[in-house]
């Protein structure tokens, strides 16, 4: 039974300029390695507004991704996480979708993700 979807409060203060990794709950399963494929449930919000822009929870199922295909903030922030854990990543634009004007709707934005690691291989 997957955990409940996370509630992400609108962040306070200035956006960080570095990746911030916070364990909300430490898992006790296998540890995600750099370059692994991870099965995750996640929710992402914009730092400035707290508005949700993506969520596997809203689709009703977790998603498996090769870490190498994800934004740098995930590539750096997920390894070391253990299955069953929940981690919050606050990702500056340089480690997300690049500076404003990079062609992605989230370019130039600091993003906050809460990620539940369901599996890794």
Automatic annotation (TrEMBL):
Coiled coil start-end: none
InterPro entries named among the record's database cross-references: PPIase_dom_sf, PPIase_FKBP_dom
Ranges of residues in domain PPIase FKBP-type: 35-121
Keyword Isomerase found: yes
PROSITE patterns for this protein: FKBP_PPIASE (PS50059)
Entry keywords, A to Z: Isomerase, Rotamase
Catalytically driven reaction(s): [protein]-peptidylproline (omega=180) = [protein]-peptidylproline (omega=0)
GO molecular function, one term: peptidyl-prolyl cis-trans isomerase activity
Family: Belongs to the FKBP-type PPIase family.
Protein name (database record): Peptidyl-prolyl cis-trans isomerase
Species, as recorded: Rhodococcus artemisiae
Higher taxonomy: Bacteria, Bacillati, Actinomycetota, Actinomycetes, Mycobacteriales
């Amino acid at each position: 039974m997957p955990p409940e979807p996370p509630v992400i409060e609108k962040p306070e203060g200035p956006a960080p300029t570095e990746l911030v990794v916070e364990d909300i709950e430490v898992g006790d399963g296998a540890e995600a390695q750099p370059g692994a494929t991870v099965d995750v449930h996640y929710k992402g919000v914009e730092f400035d507004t707290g508005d949700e822009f993506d969520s596997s929870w809203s689709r009703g199922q977790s998603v498996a991704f090769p870490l190498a295909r994800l934004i740098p903030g995930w590539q750096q922030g997920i390894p070391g996480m253990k299955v069953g854990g929940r981690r919050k990543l606050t990702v500056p634009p340089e480690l997300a979708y690049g500076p404003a004007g990079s062609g992605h709707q989230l370019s130039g934005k600091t993003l906050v993700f809460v990620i539940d690691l369901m599996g890794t291989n």
